[in-house]
Amino acid sequence: MKRIYFVCSVLFSLLLTSCGDYDDSSIQNKLNDFKERIAALQTKADKLNEDISKLGYLTEGNVITSVSRNSDGQYVITYKDNNNEEKAVVVATQEDVIEAPILGVRLNDDDQLYYWTTTIGNETNWLTDDTEKKVPVCGYTPEMGVNADGYWTVNGEILKDNKGTPITATTDETAIFKNITKTDEGYLKITLGNGETLTLEVFSSLNLRLKANAVTKITDLSSPLKIEYEVTGASAEEALVTIAQAVNVKATIDKETHTLTVIFENNFDEGHVIITAYDLQHLVLRPLLFKKN
Known about the structure:
By secondary structure, the chain is of the alpha+beta class.
């Protein structure tokens, strides 16, 4: 019995000695490298989110008034928003894109609204919500991120390819804006990182102000919603204001009082109206989205 105790004591002492002498520096180095990689990827995601917001500003119905370049070679794009306030975004382009960006926008031919898209590999599809509906640019900006395992996320959800495999984030160069040019006809041509091209008109003579949020929650379906509008700019007097589209709602315009009236049916869930102001040369599109509260 004493011999057994002696052997156990020796083994225990050896175990303590080996634990004390164990070098875990390689593991710590790997952990530090992984933390640094995740931090670098999150920095990349933050930069992409800045550009995603700028892309939203340019495609949600705001009127682009000018395009110039600053001393750093970046594009300064000014626009007038729904409140007729002039704002600007500074856009840096990157011609050599190694990894296509995940988020972009595309014009939907059916309703002439821009919707968010996802690009995975060489395939671009609509970004959808929990109910599998397309997500409009107007009033909504998705957020990219990187989770603790190094996978891309959008709004906290892991992005997966067509085989259901999570997409690993890389530090390869990528950009939302690949190229920007201004055409002789006065249009802003934006090439996105996924290769798709947007063509937006540049002018300053006309704007349409709607006294409403881009997205309005409707609580009482029985009460018509009245929204005042105002046409501004040098061409305001000769501009015509019309309803270009009304989906899942009924809408009328009173041109004397400059009021848009929207009526909802009892089974209303969501819908939208697109109001236009146009003269002989330019067209302003202002989308308004409505959702049942």
